[in-house]
Each structure stands twice: as structure tokens, then as C-alpha cells.
Amino acid sequence: MDDNIYQVYEDEIQALEEEIKLLTEKYEDIQQESTFFSEEEILKSIKSLQRETQGESKEHESLSDLKAQLESLEKDLSFLMKLTGFQFTSHSKKTLEKTGDRTVQKHRLSGNCYSLSFQLEFQLLETQSKGKVSTVITDLSIIMESGEDSDVSKFVSSVEERGNLITFFRSLSTYAEWYEHRRRTFLHFK
After folding, report:
1. What are the coiled-coil residue ranges (predicted)?
2. Is the residue at 15 inside a domain?
């Protein structure tokens, strides 16, 4: 049993010696490469590096522009969320198929509209022909907390059949707003 322990240590020592040998060879190669550069090439490299660092300072200026643009977009998003009542909590996109003129992506989207939560799953078929791009929604599946409201279930079924997301979002926004008003009213009378 002690021989096995010594063998393990000897194998480890041999592996480390081989690694040291390889690293020494790499170091020597790097040293030889560095001696091949003339002073002129080294100066060119230094000047190039200085230009890059100056470019980074310009990049910092554009970074502040990007921050301002991001703040503006966040304000716009906040305004749209207040206006429509929609708040998206997650989104994922997966490309299922991609050829020269055809792309199929699977999207999953979840969120809330006022107090109603929803989940969407659909495939987006995008085709290009003669410079025109057309998109079609297929395999639309909507999951909503509609409670016992059969009208909402019927509406969701019809939207799923037609694959019309614009109709879904417009109608859901109006319905959820009035649903919220009714809920608050009934709470008031309880």
C-alpha cells in the first residue's frame, strides 16, 4: 500500500518535471522572438499602443453619450409601461432554423398587464424574397390567469388560432385596465 502512495508521488513529480520543461522551452522561444525586434519596431509598437490609449479616451466620451442614451431609453420604457400597463418580466429567443432566405425563431415571453399575468410562446417565420422581408407568427400559445372568465378563454383561443399578437396586446391592455378598476371597486365595497 505504501508503494502505491510513493508511485502516485513519483508520477506527480514526473508530470511536474515535464511541465517545467515545456514551460522553459516556451520561455526560451519567447525570449528569442523578442530579440528579433529592432528598436524601430519596438518604437512603432509603443506609438501604436499610445494611439490605442488615446482612442480609449475618445471611447470614454462616447461612453457618456451611451449612458445618456440609455437613460433616455429607460425613461421612454417607463412611460410606455405606465401608458399601456405592460411590464415584461422575461424573454428568450432561440433560432431553430436558418437558411439563406428563411429563419425560424422560437420566442418565449412573460409579463404582466396591470394585475393580470401572461405567458406567450410562438415561432416567428421570417422569409426574404427580392429584398422584401415578411414575418409570420406560427404555433402561438398563450397562458393567462383569467380566473373563471370564459370570455377571456374564448378570446385567447381565437387569438391563438389567428396568430394575431397585436390584437392580443391591444385587447389585453384594455381588458386588464378595466379588470383592475372592477377589482378595486369590489374591494371598496367589501
Report:
1. 6-83
2. no
- The whole-angstrom separation of Cα 31 and Cα 25 is 10
Domain membership flag for residue 92: yes
Q: 6 vs 1, 10, 11, CA distance in Å?
A: 9, 6, 9
CA distance linking residue 114 with residue 175, whole number of Å: 10
**Residue 173 located in a structural domain:** yes
Point out which residues pair with 106 in neighbouring strands. 94, 123
How many domains is the chain built from?
1
Q: What is the pLDDT of residues 139-154, one digit of tens each?
A: 999 988 766 567 788 8
In a domain, 138, yes or no: yes
Q: How far is CA 113 from the centre of its chain?
A: 22
Return the SS3 of 141: strand
Mean pLDDT per segment of 10 residues, for the chain of length 190 residues? 78 89 79 57 70 62 81 86 85 87 90 88 89 88 75 84 88 85 84
**Domain enclosing residue 93, as ranges:** 85-188
Model pTM score:
0.56
Beta bridge partners of 103: 98, 126
